[in-house]
Amino acid sequence: MAKSSLKSSSNVENAKFRVAKEAANLVKDGMIVGLGSGTTANLFIDELGRRVAEEELSVFGIPTSFESRMLAIQYGIPLVSLDEYGEIDIAIDGADEVDKKSLCLIKGGGGCHTLEKIIDYCAKEFVVMVDENKIVDSLGDKTPVPLEVLPIAYSTVLNELLKRNAAPSIRMADRKMGPVITDNGNMIIDVFIDLKNPEETEKELNSIPGVVENGIFTKVDKILVGSPKKVKILSK
Length: 236
Fold this sequence. Notes:
Blueprint: H1 3-24, E1 32-35, H2 39-53, E2 60-63, H3 66-74, E3 88-93, E4 97-99, E5 105-106, H4 113-122, E6 123-131, E7 135-136, E8 145-149, H5 154-163, E9 167-170, E10 187-192, H6 198-206, E11 211-214, E12 216-217, E13 222-226, E14 231-235
Parallel strand pairs: 1-2, 1-3, 3-6, 4-7, 6-13
Antiparallel strand pairs: 4-5, 5-12, 8-10, 8-11, 9-10, 13-14
Helix pairs in contact: 1-2
């Protein structure tokens, strides 16, 4: 690997560590915390677990995926369920892309966006952590919107998306035959679609029968943008 590539990779990792630590500092004693999913969210869970282990905090977590649940248990964060605590104090999660003007997001590269959206949207405050490379001028040009779809409806959803001049494809697994299957037992269809109006598109995609949830997130309170040297805060 070239030295420039190694330096770039190191910078991204430093930015992720920095922003995850900053996010963990937003958590206060006694809070119910939505635990996001993804590489940066994993670092946040690690840092939050350290604070719990050192008795800086007494908190409860609500995980957004099987992976974040396993990590929370590993790092000693007590867990509760959403039906026990319908009101979450803060949810902290990552993103695949952030539009620098609207601050809307695309999430779901890891296939967890349905539970992420349920928990993130339930929180009093929804905070997103990203490194600066995730900030884009135009949402969705390079990253498709994921749709979690009931398996029985995949063909009708594909046809409906094609009618809307979208470019859909079933997400296929890397190390198994066939499609990716979510924690909820559903399939994922990734789609490139016009995102000039993310709020309307978020609603329209969910109106297609068979779509459980899509990966457009428009209800965000604060975005922490990490670089190797600092963390910048964006808010609407």
